[in-house]
């Protein structure tokens, strides 16, 4: 957590870390560090990147704006939109912000949008929303094999999903997680006023490999005998 002193120092463009390269307030050293880090990420992931090192052309930016993306960026005003992972690296501290953003199609880059903060879409999740059965199945089965790898993200998506149908799909996927933290998360969905959400939560708890999940499902059945799916 940032303290009031941290906030004051940041507003005064002063570093809040005692660790190198931030502690000395040497922008050149900080940028050099981030250039190495970006090159290393690119080397390890085979991703391309576009970085804004020049404060958007005027004034002062307390962060370096880097967009990582796969493949070759489309160029020109009529180029189709391509999404990448935007990372805002603080020049004053060892902190960064992640968001999804369009890959720049020109040499310049606009200021990041606050609305994009921590908003990361997963293509396979978007496939779950498809009305085409084959597209849905492809997205579902890919996610099914990668539930544990994307556990926290799927939990976040499920808990913020207002559509009962999509929420149920997320619950169904999470039921295959080996992470024991999934048990109380699924149990909480049993309190939903929506019948289908309760059904999926109970079903996944009942057939879970976690014994504590099975006990929760059994107890729910005893206490709610009027549910129509038993």
Can you offer a commentary on this structure?
The chain has helices spanning 4-11, 27-45, 123-128, 133-144, 151-160, 164-174, 182-188, 195-206, 211-223; strands at 48-52, 63-69, 83-90, 96-102. It is an alpha+beta fold. The protein has nine helices and four strands; from the N terminus they run H-H-E-E-E-E-H-H-H-H-H-H-H. Strands 1-2-3-4 form a four-stranded antiparallel β-sheet, covered by helices on one side. The model has no long low-confidence stretch (mean pLDDT 85). A hairpin with a 5-residue loop joins strand 3 and strand 4. The protein has two domains: 4-116, no CATH class; 123-223, Leucine-rich Repeat Variant, CATH 1.25.10. Helix 6 packs parallel to helix 8.
Oligomer: single chain
The fraction of residues in strands falls at 5-15%
Q: How many helices does DSSP assign?
A: 9
Largest sheet geometry: 4 strands, antiparallel
Terminus-to-terminus distance: 47 Å
Instruction: Report the C-alpha radius of gyration, rounded.
Output: 23 Å
Shape: elongated
Briefly note the structural class of the backbone: alpha+beta
Order of neighbouring strands in the sheet with most strands? 1-2-3-4
Catalogue the unreliable spans. Answer: none
